[in-house]
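We read letters as residues; the integers encode the fold. Take this protein.
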Amino acid sequence: AAPGEVAAGGPRAGWQGKGAAATGGRGAGEGGHKGYRPEVDGLRAFAVIAVILTHMGVPPLWSGFLGVDIFFVISGYVITASLESRATRDGAAFLLGFYERRIKRLSPALVCCMLATTLCLCMFDPTPQVDMRTGQAALFGLSNAAIYTKSLDYFGNTLKLNPFTQTWSLGVEEQFYVLYPIIFWATGASRRRAPYLAVMGLLSAASLAVFADWNRSNQMSKAYFLTQARFWELAAGCLVAFFQRRKANASLGEAAGDDMGAVSGRKDRRTGVGILADASLAGIAAIMAFAPLT
């Protein structure tokens, strides 16, 4: 894990209710967009700093790599919020719209980073071919699999010198982004609870079991790099966001007969720090419970 991977992955988003678009970035917030979530950026910054300090060997953050796990939880949380805000019965429009937004968001920065890194690598490394294969895989969201198939140790010297190593977590997220919107739409998550919860619950349990098994059998590279062992972390954030939306909808439904100003006030209070506190506590608690395994 490293600052590059954490900064690259995951959208900044919140939700404003049905029909409202999830937004990201401080610019949007300063422009008056109510969907901006400063507390999400704050938690993300904490995770990035923890990873940076760990790479620098600053004690006592020997477990600062958990910042990446935290970031996976955040990504699942905000992606679900984004999908909720754009839910539609038109599957093609829903899925293509999501993938289009992901490509537009991730590709420009990724391509520029890959080109600049490749240029520097060719200037200073007389044999850049091996490392460049990792960079090529990163362009297609497969760098985590490429690193694993080479049987490279993340904490070993070989990967420390590979400038594309830190794209591995972006690969995990991109692979998750391919599958998750399909699950969300196919189970009718915006309208029904049971199918979505059943599918996500089963997949999360299977992922957690794989994660624990690979750790127990000392297959650390598998447990660290592969999406099968990371799915449950992203799913933890997804499920917290899903339940929070259902709770918020129920609260608004109960207040339907109240004065609109009172309803609006209640909704505004709900979108404060508390809503992310619930998400971060639930997600991070799940991660920390298994911290000795990572």
Summary: The first helix runs from residue 3 to 8. The two ends are 12 Å apart (CA to CA). The CA atoms of residues 39 and 276 lie 7 Å apart. Residues 1-33, 259-273 have pLDDT under 50 and may be disordered.
